[in-house]
C-alpha cells in the first residue's frame, strides 16, 4: 500500500546529475501534482556517502543575499526571491574541508528553505528525501510543465548511475 | 372632476394643448386620489374637457352650476387642439353606444403622451395586463403574492423635467409655486393603476416584499438620443463602464438632471416636450422567484468522491461529487435555474464523513416550485438516499437565508473527531503505541501543508490534539482515534509533511509513518438548535 511511505507518496522524482560539471553532485527534485517542488540531495551526492560529516550549512550565498531572509506573503507568494536553474540555495562544508554548493535546479519562486537542517545537520544525511530537504520552490504556472525538460526521469537517472558504475570498473 | 380646482385650469389647458395625457395632467396637478387614475382613459379625457369647458362657461356666464346640463354642452365648441377629442362634431351624443363607437374610432388615433410616452395610456389597458399575466401563467411558477417592477427608459426623466419647468413657469405667472416633490411620480401612478388589475387577473395580492417578481423593461428607441445633450452639459456624470452597453443609464441621467442648470436645460431641450410618433415598447416581461434554501446533514461513505466537481482543462477527473449527488434531485423537484452548495467545513476526496453528518445548505436559484410539505421533504430525502450509496442525507428541510450564516459561524468552534489507519516502516508492538493514549492537549505547529501550498499563503498554524486513543492491529498498522481542534491537518500530523508539522506521529514513534485511511466524525451539538 505505502511504497516509499510517508509524505513523498504524491511526488514525482526528477533528477539533475553532475551539476556544474562536478561529478556525482546529483540533485533530486520532488514535484507534487500541484506544481510545488521540493529540492533534495540525490542518494549519490558526496555529502550522503559514508564517512562524510557536515561541518556547517550557510544560507548566505552572497553579500546581499541570504536565503533565510526570504519572505513570502499571500497566496501568490509575493516577495519571494526568484531562482533560476543554477541559483545557489546554500553552501555546505564538510569536516574534510570540501565545500558543496546546492543549486535550485529549476526556475521559480523560493517559498522556504529548510531551517531544521541548520539546527540538526544530521537529518540532511539521515533523511535527505523528507525531513532533510533543502528548499521548497514554486514554479510559474505557465512553466510548471516545462521545468522538467531539463531534468531526468527516474529511469533515465538510473541509466546514468549504471554508466557511472560501468565506467569506473 | 371634483379633485381639480380653479387654480389648476391654466395648467390643465397648457398641458392638454401640448399633448399630455389626462393621467399625467392629474399628476402635475398633484392629484393624490388613486381611484381617479383608475378611471377609464376616455372617461378621464371627457372629464378633463368638461372641467375646462365648465370654467370657460363660468367666464362666459354668471351661472355657477357645476353640473353641465346637456344643452350647454352641445352649445359649446371645442376650442382646444391636442389629443383628439371624444367627438369630432363637437356634439356629445347621449346614447352610450354611439359614444362608444365614436370613442372607439377616436381611441385608435389617440396621440402618444409627450410626457409618459404611453406608459399611463396604452400600458394601463386590459390588453397589456392580459399579456403580462399570460407570460406569468405560462412560466409555471408557484407564488402567493407578486411584486411588479418596471424599468423605464431614461428619457422619461428628461421629459418629466421639461414638463415640470413648463408648469412651474405657468404657475409662476399666476403667483403660485409648485414643488417638484408634490408632483405624483409616474411609476407610483402606474402601479396604482396596474396593481389591482394584475392582482385580479393573477388571483394574488401585490406585495412589495414578495419573493415573486414580475418585471417589465420599457424602451422608446425613437427618443433614445434625447438624453445625449446631458453628456455635453455634465460630462462627468457619464463615464463609460465596461459592462454597460449605453452610457446613458437611468441613474446617470437622473444625476445629470440634478446638476444641470435650468437655463442650460431649456437651451437644449424643447419645453414643452415634443409629441412622439410611437408608443413605448415592452421589451421583455420576465418572472423570477426569490431563492429558497434547503439544509440538512450528509454522510460520505466513499473514499473517491470530491466535494465539488473535479474538472481540469475541461476534463472531469473523478466521477460526480457530493454537491451534485445531493442537488440533482432538488433541482428537478424545485425546478430551479441553478444552485449554490455550501457546507460547514469539508473533507478531502479520500476521507469518509461519519457520525451525525456534516451540515450543508443549498440555495436554489429561481425555483418554479416553492411549497413543500414536511412529508414531501421526507420523500425527497428518501429519493436522494436511494439514488446513491456514496452519500446519505438526513434532516432535509427548508430553512431561511439567515440559517446559512449561523451554519458558517459554527465552523470555528467545533471539536473534530477522527479515525486514522496508520502504517509504520519499522515494526511496532502494543507497548510502543500505548503512550499515545496518555497525551492530552498536545500542541502542534503546522506549516501550510505542501499539498495545498500552491493556493494558500505560507503560515504556521498552532493546533491542539485534545486526546488520542490507539488500537493495535499488527506490527506495521494501528488505528488512532483523535479529538482535535477545528482546522487541524490530520494527514500531516501523521506523516509529518517533510518535518513541517511538529510534533508528528512519526517523530513521536521515531519511525516513518503514513496514513492509509481517514474518517471524520462531525459533532453537531451547535446545530441541534438550527435544524429540527
TrEMBL record, chain A:
GO biological process: dendrite morphogenesis; regulation of actin filament polymerization; regulation of filopodium assembly
GO molecular function: actin filament binding; actin monomer binding
InterPro entries: Abitram, GCV_H/Fam206, Single_hybrid_motif
Main location: other
Keyword Nucleus: yes
Keywords of the record: Cell projection, Nucleus
CC terms in the record's Gene Ontology section: dendrite; filopodium tip; growth cone; lamellipodium; nuclear speck
Superkingdom assignment: Eukaryota
Keyword DNA damage on entry: no
Cell compartments where the protein resides: Cell projection, Dendrite; Cell projection, Growth cone; Cell projection, Lamellipodium; Nucleus speckle
Similarity comment text for this entry: Belongs to the ABITRAM family.
UniProt name for this protein: Protein Abitram
Organism: Otus sunia
Source taxonomy: Eukaryota, Metazoa, Chordata, Craniata, Vertebrata
UniProtKB/TrEMBL annotation, chain B:
Stored InterPro entries: PsdUridine_synth_cat_dom_sf (IPR020103), Pus10-like (IPR039894), Pus10-like_C (IPR048741), Pus10_N_euk (IPR048742)
Residue ranges occupied by any Pus10-like C-terminal domain in the UniProt entry: 293-521
Keywords: Coiled coil, Cytoplasm, Isomerase, Metal-binding, Mitochondrion, Nucleus, tRNA processing, Zinc
Gene Ontology BP, a term: tRNA pseudouridine synthesis
GO MF term list: metal ion binding; RNA binding; tRNA pseudouridine(55) synthase activity
Cellular location(s): Cytoplasm; Mitochondrion; Nucleus
Species the sequence originates in: Otus sunia (Oriental scops-owl)
Single GO cellular component term: nucleus
Residues annotated as domain Pus10 N-terminal eukaryotes: 113-287
PANTHER family to which the protein is assigned, alphabetical: TRNA PSEUDOURIDINE SYNTHASE PUS10
SUPFAM superfamilies: Pseudouridine synthase
Protein name: tRNA pseudouridine synthase Pus10
Catalytic activity, EC: 5.4.99.25
Pfam family, one: Pus10_C
Coiled-coil regions listed in the entry: none
Catalytic activity: uridine(54) in tRNA = pseudouridine(54) in tRNA; uridine(55) in tRNA = pseudouridine(55) in tRNA
Membrane-crossing segments per the record: none
Main location: cytoplasm
Name of the top EC class for this enzyme: isomerase
Amino acid at each position: 500500500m505505502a511504497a516509499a511511505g510517508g509524505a513523498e507518496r504524491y511526488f514525482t522524482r526528477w533528477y539533475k546529475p553532475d551539476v556544474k560539471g562536478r561529478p556525482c553532485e546529483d540533485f533530486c527534485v520532488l514535484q507534487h501534482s500541484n506544481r510545488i517542488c521540493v529540492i533534495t540531495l540525490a542518494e549519490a551526492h558526496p555529502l550522503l556517502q559514508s564517512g562524510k560529516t557536515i561541518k556547517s550549512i550557510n544560507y548566505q550565498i552572497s553579500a546581499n543575499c541570504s536565503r533565510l531572509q526570504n519572505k513570502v506573503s499571500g497566496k501568490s507568494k509575493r516577495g519571494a526571491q526568484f531562482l533560476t536553474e543554477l541559483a545557489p540555495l546554500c553552501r555546505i562544508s564538510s569536516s574534510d574541508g570540501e565545500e558543496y554548493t546546492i543549486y535550485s535546479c529549476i526556475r521559480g519562486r523560493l517559498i522556504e528553505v529548510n531551517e531544521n537542517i541548520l539546527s540538526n545537520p544530521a537529518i540532511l544525511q539521515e533523511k535527505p528525501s523528507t525531513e532533510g530537504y533543502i528548499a521548497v520552490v514554486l514554479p510559474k504556472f505557465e512553466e510548471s510543465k516545462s521545468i522538467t525538460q531539463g531534468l531526468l526521469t527516474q529511469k533515465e537517472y538510473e541509466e546514468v548511475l549504471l554508466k557511472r558504475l560501468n565506467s569506473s570498473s | 372632476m371634483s379633485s381639480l380646482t380653479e387654480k389648476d385650469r391654466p395648467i390643465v389647458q397648457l398641458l392638454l394643448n401640448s399633448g399630455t395625457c389626462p393621467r399625467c395632467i392629474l399628476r402635475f396637478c398633484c392629484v393624490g386620489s388613486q381611484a381617479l387614475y383608475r378611471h377609464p382613459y376616455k372617461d378621464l379625457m371627457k372629464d378633463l374637457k368638461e372641467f375646462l369647458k365648465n370654467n370657460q362657461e363660468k367666464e362666459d356666464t354668471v351661472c355657477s352650476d357645476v353640473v353641465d346640463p346637456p344643452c350647454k354642452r352641445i352649445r359649446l365648441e371645442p376650442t382646444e387642439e391636442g389629443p383628439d377629442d371624444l367627438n369630432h362634431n363637437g356634439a356629445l351624443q347621449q346614447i352610450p353606444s354611439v359614444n362608444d363607437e365614436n370613442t372607439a374610432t377616436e381611441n385608435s388615433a389617440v396621440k402618444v403622451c409627450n410626457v409618459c410616452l404611453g406608459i399611463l395610456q396604452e400600458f394601463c389597458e386590459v390588453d397589456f395586463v392580459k399579456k403580462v399575466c399570460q407570460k406569468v401563467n405560462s412560466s409555471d411558477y408557484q407564488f402567493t403574492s407578486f411584486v411588479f417592477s418596471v424599468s423605464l427608459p431614461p428619457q422619461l426623466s428628461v421629459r418629466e423635467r421639461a414638463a415640470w419647468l413648463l408648469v412651474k413657469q405657468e404657475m409662476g405667472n399666476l403667483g403660485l409655486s409648485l414643488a417638484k416633490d408634490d408632483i405624483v411620480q409616474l411609476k407610483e401612478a402606474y402601479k396604482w393603476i396596474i396593481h389591482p388589475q394584475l392582482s385580479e387577473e393573477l388571483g394574488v395580492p401585490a406585495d412589495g416584499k414578495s419573493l415573486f417578481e414580475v418585471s417589465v423593461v420599457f424602451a422608446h428607441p425613437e427618443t433614445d438620443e434625447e438624453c445625449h445633450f446631458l453628456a455635453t452639459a455634465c460630462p462627468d456624470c457619464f463615464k463609460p463602464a465596461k459592462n454597460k452597453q449605453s452610457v446613458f443609464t437611468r441613474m446617470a441621467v437622473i444625476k445629470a438632471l440634478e446638476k444641470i442648470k435650468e437655463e442650460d436645460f431649456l437651451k437644449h431641450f424643447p419645453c414643452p416636450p415634443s409629441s412622439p410618433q410611437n408608443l413605448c415598447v415592452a421589451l421583455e416581461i420576465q418572472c423570477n422567484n426569490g431563492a429558497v434554501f434547503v439544509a440538512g446533514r450528509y454522510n460520505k461513505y466513499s473514499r473517491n468522491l470530491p466535494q465539488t466537481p473535479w474538472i481540469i482543462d475541461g476534463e472531469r477527473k473523478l466521477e460526480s461529487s457530493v454537491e451534485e449527488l445531493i442537488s440533482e434531485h432538488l433541482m428537478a423537484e424545485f425546478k430551479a435555474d441553478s444552485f449554490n452548495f455550501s457546507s460547514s467545513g469539508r473533507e478531502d476526496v479520500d476521507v469518509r464523513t461519519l457520525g451525525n453528518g456534516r451540515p450543508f445548505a443549498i440555495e436554489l436559484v429561481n425555483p418554479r416550485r416553492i411549497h413543500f410539505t414536511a412529508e414531501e421533504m421526507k420523500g425527497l430525502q428518501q429519493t436522494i438516499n436511494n439514488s446513491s450509496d456514496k452519500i446519505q442525507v438526513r434532516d432535509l428541510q427548508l430553512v431561511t437565508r439567515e440559517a446559512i450564516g449561523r451554519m458558517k459561524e459554527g465552523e470555528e468552534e467545533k471539536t473534530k473527531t477522527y479515525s486514522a489507519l496508520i502504517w509504520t516502516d519499522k515494526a511496532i508492538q502494543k507497548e510502543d503505541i500505548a503512550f499515545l493514549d496518555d497525551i492530552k492537549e498536545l500542541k502542534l505547529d503546522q506549516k501550510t501543508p505542501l499539498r495545498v501550498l500552491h493556493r494558500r499563503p505560507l503560515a504556521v498554524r498552532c493546533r491542539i490534539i485534545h486526546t488520542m486513543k490507539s488500537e493495535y492491529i499488527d506490527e506495521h498498522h494501528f488505528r488512532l482515534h483523535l479529538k482535535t481542534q477545528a482546522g487541524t491537518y490530520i494527514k500531516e500530523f501523521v506523516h509529518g509533511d517533510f518535518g513541517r508539522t511538529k510534533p508528528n506521529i512519526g517523530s513521536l514513534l521515531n519511525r516513518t509513518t503514513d496514513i492509509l485511511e481517514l474518517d471524520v466524525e462531525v459533532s453537531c451539538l451547535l446545530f441541534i438548535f438550527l435544524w429540527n
